[in-house]
Each structure stands twice: as structure tokens, then as C-alpha cells.
Amino acid sequence: MTLYQKYCRETFDEQGRLTDFELVYPDSFNFGYDVVDEYARLEPDKRALVWCDTEGSERTFTFAELRDESNRCANVMLASGIGRGDRVLVALKKHYEYWITVTALHKIGAVVIPVTHMLTAKDYIYRIECADIKGFVITHQGDICERVLEAVNKTGIDCCLWTIRGSREGFRDLTAEMAAASAELERRETYVHDPMLIYFTSGTTGLPKGVVHDHTYPLAHIVTAKYWHHVQDGGLHFTVAETGWAKSSWGKLYGQWLAGTAVMVFDFDNFDPKMMMHVLNKYEVTTFCAPPTVYRYLVRSGIPQLPKLTYATTAGELLNPEVFRLFKEKTGLSLCEGYGQSETTLLTGNFSAESSVAGSMGVPSPQYDIRLIRRDGTEAAVGEVGEVCVKPKHEGVHPDGIFTAYLNNDELFREVWRGGVYHTGDSATVDENGCFWFNGRFDDIIKTGGYRVGPYEIENVLMEYPDVLECSVVGVPDKLRGQAIKAYIVLKNGVIGDHALEKQIKDFANSRLSDYKWVRLIEFVDEMPKTFSGKVRKTEQRKG
């Protein structure tokens, strides 16, 4: 029996297709003890993690090694005063220390806040003020240490600061402290509905929201890994995602280990399609998931034979049918799309390569009751646009794997859970075969290069430029990125919008924004298209 089967009830039809899925777990379930340590007990030499980087370094970890390393890390944290409920921000890029650190924090009941290394000092200040952070574990690379120190000094918080693989001014060396720590750890008490993880996700009408998940979240990703990614027990799964994003939890950790596959990690900064293909073949990756942006680059640069690859999936933005066709032509594999949010696990997906249709979100996951709801609260008909909503399967029981709170924002949480269902803010249609088709984002999230960006953050920065009177940021079609970030700007009276000013505004904004939020296009306009209530009609702007 694969370990995941211990935690679920599955129902299949005569064709062997999963038709219903229910989680079962004890109140004490903890991924660190009950998955990582349990594999270490049952199959200590079972491969868990295969890591390599662009410099040729590589490491392979068994579950027994991960148990010991995470225990050492947990002991360092405990000795430093980090414990149950404390929030620890982790920015470790794709370093293998991420998997060790996260497992350790789960074991001691601390709350992990994964973030991208691309955050600015201002971004860190915001997260510190929101989350009462007690510790940081961050990469040794680049100037991230300086940015974190700037934020910590400006806020005046008292917290533990760690970096890895060496000392940096103001930081403790976690690698050295772990080497001196014990590999023995007595199980700590945790509760399955304790907060476990917080992701900050961008919105359009406010600053980033803290999305809180409990310890059911890893279990809810069983369907993601087993039935969408089609991972193999003893196989090797590779999801392209930095650890600061929820996509990493979808494809690089929880469901994959529960289903018995090892996780492939390629530690890189600059995407190189040929090098990625080399990694796929060298390490004999069996299942692969990446955003459509990556597949576009791969198709464009040429795809070699991938003899060990058995399944390929994609999510994060709309997939171009031509990319779907070319990838299948080169590999014989259909790209199977899936859909969900930072607030959820997989909600819909193409669960079979044979029935996968380019551009479709697929069918609802058997784990959830997915409905398309009209504005008036009634259910949309076939072919009619509605909002994707999650209805609890059991009245009064919160669905496992769906976020449990917005950090410090109960009002917003109640708003998205109005009418007894979770409103995703995404619109779609459903066809006569039960397949969902994405229509648009109600709150205008921009999906660029696999990242989700809220226009509000960028607009705030643009408004700091002295000559900008008004601005609106939208995503526009881009062949490589899916969407590029474009700013419409109304200038103050007497200011002439020319190429020189365009460059000055771009330089001003982009020097204050993380790389993935950079403004690529600017259009100067005399006025914004607006509704009667004064809201900018972003839909019109996206059409150009």
C-alpha cells in the first residue's frame, strides 16, 4: 500500500476512473512525522529528493536523511525559542535546504511563510507588519540579506535571522548550527487544524493577502499528484516553480511524497530550455509540470527525445492550442491543464491524457463540489458564464485543503465565503461534456511568465512619480510571457508624454518593483475609460 492510501477513501467507476475522494486523518496528523518520518521508518533508503544546480553540484536525499536533517533543524529552532504557532518566513529559492527547513517547521508546529527571493525591503516590511514574524531563513545568494536587514531594522522587530552555507553579517549560519545539533527529536504535539502555512497572494483592490492553510493542505494535494500529475511510486517528478510560490506546494513536496514519488529540483536563476531538457533526461524524470510560458520556450527552442517522461501537466495561465499541438507532436504526450488558486488545491483538471483538450480547465476534482454560479446566486447553465465556486460536500464542514482564513482580514474571508460557498473570483463556462473553460478574472489578476501579479501594487509605485496624475495597470497578450504588464498613464497638465519620459517612468517604477512585476509597456492617454461609479474599465484597456 502506498502511504497516501492510509489517508483517503477512493471510489472508482468501471473504467477505473476516480469518481469520489474523501480524506480521513487523525486530529494529530502532521506531514513531518506522519509522512517524512513514516517513510524513513518503513523504507529508510527510499529516494525523496534529487537536487542539482547550474554549477554541476548535485545531492540526493533519502527519507531517512531528510528525517535526520529536519530533526537537526527543528532542534536549532526550538533552542532559539521558535515553537508552535510562531511564524517563520522562508526565502530559499530552490535550495535543498527548503525541504529540510519546511519539514522541520511543520514538526514543531511553526507556521511557514514561503516567499520569493525577489521581494524588496518594502515587501518584507509589509509582511513583518502583517504577520508578526519570529524568524527568517533565507538564501545566502545575492543581496537578499541586506534587504531583510533593512526591513528588520526599520520595523525594529526582535527575531531570529538565519542564512545557509556560511555566515553573513547580522545572520546566523543555519548549516553550521544544524551540524552541531542532535538528529533525535521527540514528537511535538500539533493539531491538524492548526495554521501550518501562509502564502501572500496579490489582489487588485488592496495589498497582498495572507492566505492561511492548516495541516489538511498536504493531504488535499494527493489528488493533485496522484490523479493529475500521474506520479509513479518510485518515480521522479519535476515541477518548475520557485519555492516562494504556492505552485511549489502543488508540485514539489506534499502530494508527491504522499504518493511515493521522489521530487526533482533544478536550482537555477535564469531559465535555459536546453539545460532543462538535459536535466529531464539525465535524471530520468518520469512526470513533469510547468507553466505554459515554459512550454512555449521549450517548443520554440526545440524539444529532444524524452524517453522516460510519461506524463506532462500545466497550470497558471491559458495554454495556447498551438503549443499543445507542437508539444504532442514532438513527444507524443498531451499537455493536461489544471486549475486552482493559492487559496485552494486542485479544483479542476484534465485527469486523462486521452481526453485532454487544449485550453480547457478540465473537469471538477472528485475531492470538491465545484459549481458555476451566476451573480444572482443561481447555477449557470451549459455555455453560460458563471463564477467558479466551491460548495462544501458536507453541510457545516469546511472543505479540506481550502484556506481557513485571510490573515488579519475576517471581513474579506466572510465576503468570499458568502452564501455558504467559496467564491474564487474566476469566471468560466462549462460545456455539455462537463469540461470547464476559463473566461476571465473578476479582480483582474495579471498572469505573467507563470507569476500572479496584482495591478494595485504597481499602480501605487507609478503614482509616486511626480508627473503621473492617474494610472491603470493591466495584463496584455504576450507570446512569451502569456501576459505583459502594461500601464496606461494620464500625465499632469503641461507634461508631454514622449519616449524619454516613458523610459524615465519605467526606470523609476522597475527599480522599486520585483523583477516579475516590471512594467513592460506604457501608453500615455488623455483620460481613463470609466464606469458611472468612477471605476476604470480595465476590460476595455486589455483589448487595447
Write structural notes for this entry.
It is a single chain. With 544 residues, this protein is an alpha/beta fold. It has a domain at 447-542: ANL, C-terminal domain (GMP Synthetase, Chain A, domain 3, 2-Layer Sandwich). The chain is 28% helix and 27% strand. Strands 4-3-13-12-14-15-16-17-18-23-22-20-19 form a 13-stranded mixed sheet, sandwiched between helices. It has a five-stranded parallel sheet with strand order 6-5-7-8-9, sandwiched between helices. It has a three-stranded antiparallel sheet with strand order 10-11-21. A hairpin with a 5-residue loop joins strand 1 and strand 2 (18-23). Helix 1 (31-42) packs across helix 3 (97-107), helix 2 (63-79) packs across helix 3 and helix 4 packs across helix 5 (144-155). It starts with 7 loop residues before the first strand and ends with a helix.
Cα Rg: 23 Å
CATH architecture of one domain: 2-Layer Sandwich
> What distance separates the N and C termini?
55 Å
The chain-level structural class is alpha/beta
Could you please say which CATH topology of one domain applies here? GMP Synthetase, Chain A, domain 3
Number of H- or I-type helical stretches: 17
The percent range for strand residues is 25-35%
> Helix amount, in percent?
25-40%
Short description:
The protein is an alpha/beta fold and 544 residues long.
Indicate the topology.
Layout: E1 8-12, E2 18-23, H1 31-42, E3 47-53, E4 58-62, H2 63-79, E5 87-91, H3 97-107, E6 111-114, H4 121-131, E7 133-138, H5 144-155, E8 160-163, E9 172-173, H6 174-179, E10 195-201, E11 209-214, H7 217-220, H8 222-228, E12 236-239, H9 246-251, H10 254-258, E13 262-267, H11 273-282, E14 287-289, H12 292-301, E15 311-314, H13 321-331, E16 335-340, E17 346-349, E18 360-364, E19 369-373, E20 386-391, E21 405-406, H14 410-416, E22 422-430, E23 436-441, E24 446-448, E25 451-453, H15 455-462, E26 468-478, E27 482-491, H16 499-510, E28 521-524, H17 538-542
Parallel strand pairs: 3-13, 5-6, 5-7, 7-8, 8-9, 12-13, 12-14, 14-15, 15-16, 27-28
Antiparallel strand pairs: 1-2, 3-4, 10-11, 11-21, 16-17, 17-18, 18-23, 19-20, 20-22, 22-23, 24-25, 26-27
